[in-house]
Amino acid sequence: MKPDETMQQPTQGAMNNLYRSVRKVIEQARGFVSVAANTALVRQNWEIGRLIVEHEQGGNRKAEYGKAQIAGLAQRLTTEYGCGYDERNLRYMRSFYLAFPIWNTLCSELSWSHYRILMRVGDAKAREWYEKECVACGWSVRELDRQVSTQAYARLLSSANPDRRRRRQDVPHSPMPEKPSSLVPADFIRNPMILEFLSLPDDVKLRETQLESAIISHLKEVLMELGRGFCFVARQRHIHSGSDDYFIDLVFYNCILKCYVLIDLKMGKVTHRDVGQMDMYRRMFDDLVCQPDDRPTIGIVLCDETDANIANYSVLAGNDKLYAVKYSTVMPPEDVLRREIAAQKELFRLQMQDTETAGNLIEPSETACNPSTRRRADSSAKHT
Questions:
Q1: Cα dist. 120→44, 174, 379 in Å?
Q2: What whole-number distance in Å separates Cα of residue 179 and Cα of residue 187?
Q3: What is the per-residue pLDDT for 19?
Q4: pLDDT (tens digit, 9 = 90+) per residue, 125-153?
Q5: 176: which strand partners?
Q6: How far apart are CA 112 and CA 362, in angstroms?
Q7: DSSP string, 88-133
Q8: Hey, where are the domains in the chain?
Q9: pLDDT range class, residue 69, cuts 50, 70, 90
Q10: What is the pLDDT of residues 13-63, one digit of tens each?
């Protein structure tokens, strides 16, 4: 029997549509399975940790016989279920429960591998920050590991003066907080910046153009290092004022702070000319580029070396819109990085020692880029 001549064969376009629809269903189903499996694994490991703690210690972390108990349990579980329940993994589960004793505070978006890394962070506030930033920024396990290894939380300038920080308990889970006015620039600026992913030679004197080109070539990694809310806007942004032309190396926008962030690259030690030039750039940007609902522009001089005199006596002093930030093109050893962070925080304290701006809220009335308002505010700051 011949096929019906009137029946039409499906077109290639129709088959492609069918394929895409079926593929979407499969991917969604696999995603649901992956999420469910991850949640089950995290819950299992948390419950095992809870049972171990309650049994061996009765809630007391100073028990003497814990090692023998875990070793015996691991031997029996490994015999029945395999190496996933050996002594080392059981200790991870125990530590997991001790670090996160309340189940409802855990984030379903994070995997067991994420929490394994978070358990390396001893400070509870830092651990909570990494957890929330990981969810908000969608960090992979590898990226979370880098953020912890480079001490991203400690490098935040806002952690330099915890007693003077704005009066709120934490950074919200959401990448777009309900009240962004409660955030200050120091909540986002890290010093020093670690740019090891640029793969630049450490023993060769670089030109500013080389560093700029490397940053553009690794823009995704640079945005991760800058942190939450940063978007790339322009390279060598041209500004014309009067009869003069100016070019700003890199321009970003932070969609949480609602302001532009200008970065000027400088080789060698920062000078008063560098910070003065950046101060002029950000004022010009406020007047010529910003919209009325944008907040005042932030200026960053990214340099090889910062300086205490510049922090104390230049236009940096008392200015929470202008920063000199040190960068490193290599990953320093942990102890070296810790000392460098402490040194940069001390310079930030020196910069902000005569003003309460670093710890105050940015009130909505102070955030508009109205040129006359900005000039009055800057003038007042100079005379305080």
A1: 20, 24, 46
A2: 14
A3: 86
A4: 999 999 999 999 999 999 999 999 999 99
A5: none
A6: 38
A7: HHHHHHHHHHHH---GGGS-TTS-HHHHHHHTT--SHHHHHHHHHH
A8: 45-58+68-100, 107-149, 153-382
A9: confident
A10: 888 888 888 898 888 888 778 778 889 999 999 999 999 988 876 655 555
Beta bridge partners of 264: 301
Which of these, 118, 175, 108, 173, lies nearest to 141 by C-alpha position?
Answer: 118
- Amino acid occupying residue 91: R
Per-residue confidence (pLDDT) for residue 70, from 0 to 100: 87
| Burial category of 2 from C-beta neighbours within 10 Å (exposed 0-12, middle 13-18, buried 19 and up) | exposed
What pairs with residue 156 in β-bridges?
190
> Cβ neighbours of residue 338 under 8 Å, at least 6 residues apart?
151, 154
Closest CA to 183 of 298, 97, 269, 41: 298
Report the alpha-carbon distance of residue 268 to residue 301 in Å, rounded. 11
Query: Which one, of 249, 342, 265, 350, lies nearest residue 307 by Cα?
Result: 350
Q: Which residues contact 337 (CB under 8 A, 6 or more apart)?
A: 150, 151, 194
Q: Is 23 exposed, middle or buried (0-12, 13-18, 19+ CB in 10 A)?
A: exposed
pLDDT in tens, 157-212: 988 665 544 444 444 444 444 455 578 899 999 999 999 999 888 766 778 899 99
Task: Determine whether domain 153-382 maps to CATH 3.40.1350.10.
Answer: yes
Asked if the peptide bond before residue 192 counts as cis, ω within 30 degrees of 0, the response is yes
* Pairwise CA distance, residues 214 & 222, whole Å: 10
Separation between Cα atoms, residue 281 and residue 239, nearest integer Å: 9
Q: What's this model's pTM, rounded to 2 decimal places?
A: 0.79
The string of pLDDT tens digits covering residues 273-309 is 999 999 999 999 999 999 999 999 999 999 999 999 9
Q: Which amino acid is at 225?
A: E
222: closest CA among 327, 320, 126, 306?
A: 327
Strand 259-269 relative to strand 244-254: parallel, antiparallel, unpaired?
A: antiparallel
